[in-house]
Amino acid sequence: MSGEAQTGRKVRPAAHALTERGRAKVNLTLRVVGRRADGYHDLESLVAFADCADRLTLTPGPELTLATTGPTAQACGELVDNLVLKAARLLAERVPDLKAGAFTLEKMLPVAAGIGGGSADAAAALRLLARLNGLALDDQRLAEVALLTGADVPVCLLSQACDMTGVGEGLLPLNLPKLPCVLVNPNVPVATKDVFAALGLRNGELLVGVTDVIKSPRWPGDGASVADWIATLSRVGNDLEAPARRIEPVIGDVLSALGESDGTKLARMSGSGATCFALFASAADAQAAAKQIAAEHATWWVHAGELS
C-alpha cells in the first residue's frame, strides 16, 4: 500500500464511499500525575465529546491518499505527516492485505487547539478502515495502532465519555448526561509539547502525591444530574492551564469572556489549549452566551452545543 497527500482539491465521494465524524474531544478535567522515566507524562482526565466534528470520507481504491477541504484545511500543514495517513500505514503493517483508498477530510475544527482534532481524524480513519476490512472495533491491532498514532487517539476511537489515565491507554467509559456548553478558540495555535515543556517536570518527577490520589473525587453515578456533574467537575481543574496561559495570554481573555457570560456554571481550558469551554444549565443559556461572545470577538471560533 503506497501513499501520497493532496491538498486544495475538492474530491467528490463515490456512491460506495464510507464516512465517519471526528468529534471534538474536550478535557473536562486534566491532572498531570507526573513525568515517567521515559519522558512521557502520566495523566488523569475526564474526557467528553462535542457535537461539532470534522468529516472524513474513505473511497475504496488501490492507493492510499488524503485530500483536505473545509474552512480550516489550510492550517493542517504538510499532509504527508497527517495522522490519518500515519494511522492507516501503521494498521497496514499489522493487517495483511489491508484495503484502503482515498481519504477526503472536511476540516471544520480549529487546529492545534486542545480539542483533539487531528486525533479524532486519525480515530475516524481507523473506524473507516475497520468497517472496510471487517475488523471489530475491539480488535487489539486497532488499539495498538491508536496509541502509537497519538495519546488522544484511543479515547477518540471510542468517541464517548471516558476517564482516561496513563498516557492515554487506560479508558473507563462513563455515562455522562448531555452538558450544554460553549467552546471558544481564539484562532491561536498552541503546541502541546511547548505547554508540557513549560510545566517543567523532570523525568521521574511526580506532580500528584499519594494523598492527592486518595482525595481524588469519584465521578457521579448513572442518572446523575447536570448539576451533580458540574459540582464534581468544579473540584478538579486542568494542570496545563497555567503554563498554557503563560505561553498564550489570550487564553485568559477567552476564559474571562466565558466566565462573565450569563448562566456560566464552570469555565475552563481544554487539553493544552487554546480552546476553552463553559458549561451551562440550559441550552438556551449556552446559545445566548455564544451569540454574545461571537459578536464581541469576530475573529474567534465559537460553538454552542452539547458535550456527552
Task: Provide mean pLDDT, rounded.
Answer: 93
What proportion of the residues is helical, as a percent range?
25-40%
Total domains: 2
Estimated structural class: alpha+beta
- CATH fold call of the largest domain: Ribosomal Protein S5, domain 2
Q: Tell me the number of helical segments per DSSP (H or I, 4 or more residues long).
A: 10
Provide the β-strand percentage band.
25-35%
Q: List the helices and strands in order.
A: EEEEEHEHHHEEEHHHHHEEHE
Largest sheet: 8 strands, mixed
Runs with pLDDT <50, length 5+?
A: none
Summarize the structure in words:
Helices cover 31% and strands 28% of the residues. By secondary structure, it is an alpha+beta fold. Strands 1, 2, 3, 4, 5, 6, 7 and 8 form an 8-stranded mixed beta sheet that branches. It has a 4-stranded antiparallel beta sheet with strand order 10-11-9-12, with helices on both faces. Helix 1 (83-92) packs antiparallel against helix 3 (140-149). The radius of gyration is 19 Å and the shape is globular. The mean pLDDT is 93.
